Amino acid sequence: xAHLIAPSVLxxxxxxxxxDIRMINNSEADWFHVDVMDGVFVPNISFGFPILKHxxxxxxxxxxxxxxxxxxxxxxxxxxxxGADIITVHYEACTHLHRTLQSIRSLGIKAGVALNxxxxxxxxxxxxxxxxxxLVMSVNPGFGGQQFIRQSFxxxxxxxxxxxxxxxxxxxxxxxGVDLSxxxxxxxxxxxxxxxxxxxxxxxxxxxxxxxxxKG
Length: 216
Ligand code: DX5
Ligand code: ZN
Description:
- The protein is an alpha/beta fold.
- The chain has a single domain, classed as Aldolase class I (TIM Barrel).
- It has helices at about 15-25, 50-60, 75-80, 95-105, 150-165, 185-190, 200, 205-215, and strands spanning about 5, 30-35, 65-70, 85-90, 110-115, 135, 170-175, 195.
- α6 links the parallel β7 and β8 (about 195).
- The two termini are about 15 Å apart.
- The mean pLDDT is about 100.
- Bound molecules: D-xylitol-5-phosphate and zinc ion.
- D-xylitol-5-phosphate binds next to β2, β8 and α7.
- D-xylitol-5-phosphate binds near residues 10, 176 and 198.
């Protein structure tokens, strides 16, 4: 399978959000990556339900919602109502991760688990069949435009091996500092979905960059 591209709305121009959403709709992008931050789990606050609903109204592609919040289980239903097609919670933010994944799936959408750069992939080996998507953070979460952590290549490789050996069909997504210099290697290591914020919205022709990232 060719890898998918999920532009991160966090780097969009919020003065012209409609325009940027239309650009993604008309591009080869596959998903909208939507970063929700609570100022507690990560040292930044992004946006919540009103913005998410606005994006959902305009978007013609699935909403990939990345929750960087503590105790995300409190808000799952509300995120589904706001339009999430995939909800990814952080391994580090869930005391009862297995239960949270079951709750997300019971709401009829896909369940993802994100791993901070310091979290070994072995920590998720008991939820390989309960998860539709593993998100490997290749920067410390909280901000767009940070430098890619190169250790992420081997993490993706290891995770891919774990998934293949177990027969899990879960996808691997990579998030943080992804650009044209590392996209191809990430896909070769086993990444199925690449998130890109700055690399897409920081260029003169974002749609063309999405196309190039896809070719990898
Ligand atoms: C960081 C977010 C990312 C971010 C990626 O905490 O999870 O999705 O928007 O932005 P870039 O691609 O600029 O690193
Ligand atoms: Zn993200």
